Amino acid sequence: MPSFFHSFRFSLVGFFALLLGTSSSAHAVLIAYEGFNYSSGLALNGLNGGSGFSSGWVENAAANVDTTSPGLSFPNLTVSGNAASLVPTTGAGHSTRSLSSSIDSGTLYVSYLIDPTTLVQSTFTGMILFNSLDAQAVFFGKNSGVANWSMSGIGITGNLQSTTAVVEDTLNLLVLRVDFNASGVNERIRFYLNPVPGSLEPSTPAIDVIAGDFGTLAKIGFGTGNTSTATMDEFRLGTTWNEVVPLSAIPEPATAFLMLTGLGAIMLQQRLHPGKARI
User: Are both 48 and 146 inside the same structural domain?
Assistant: First the structure.
């Protein structure tokens, strides 16, 4: 085999090994993940897919949550499976699920996708973190009686609102950061709206507050109230920003251009120095 093709082969292998190594290092193991990878049209109650949970979903009497297809999709965010459709029968409907491992230290990131399909000002729609006493530690989404994305929880007075209004039939990516014991025994909470997947954590969150002592987080939940309806998907819990806002494996145009440019540079190098193999 001519030296050019021999050296090019090894350079190409090295290039893609580096590329794959860089890609895989960005995907760490999540604490828990639910992508609703179930058949469409199933009642959520009792389903136990995903990872990082000790049991299946449990619905209250008003929940009425079914799996629906297709799943929600946010630009450049890694997604899989279908989604959950929330149409409560009456009152406040919610579904909960226990985590395999409780969380009471370090930093926790939580993210999910939500499309509020029917909005009622007086009701809520969003995600909840419960502690080991089954108390609502923190809620983030749309609180009852407010028009903007907001949050509430232990040690937080009332409903803290962002400046962004909740718009019906509009997809959103919501991210919560919890720093345990950031102020004595109290937790610091940061709430982000629609960040760009693959980017750095924004320096300015939509809401930043010192809350109370959440205790030990042991369960997640989500729900809507009364006649509000919503579709939710892609529940992620992790210890880093990139774990819960992962960039899709499909490269953006700029990324693809850089890949091709790198490959072209290797080919040019081998033509200029055909006798040298570079990896």
Answer: yes
Minimal CA–CA distance to 129: which of 115, 111, 145? Answer: 111
Nearest residue to 152 via CA among 171, 127, 185, 118: 127
Q: How many CA atoms lie within 13 A of 13 on its CB side?
A: 9
The per-residue pLDDT for range 6-41, each reduced to its tens digit, is 444 434 434 443 344 444 334 458 999 999 999 999
| One domain, residues 5 and 133 | no
pTM over 0.85: no
Are 83 and 200 members of one domain?
yes
Same domain, 3 and 55: no
Span 86-136, pLDDT tens digits: 998 777 888 999 999 999 999 999 999 999 999 888 899 999 999 999 999
Which structural domain range is residue 160 located in?
30-246
Q: Burial of 202 by CB count in 10 Å (0-12 exposed, 13-18 middle, 19+ buried)?
A: middle
One domain, residues 242 and 105? yes
Q: Which residues contact 258 (CB under 8 A, 6 or more apart)?
A: none
Strand partners, 183: 186
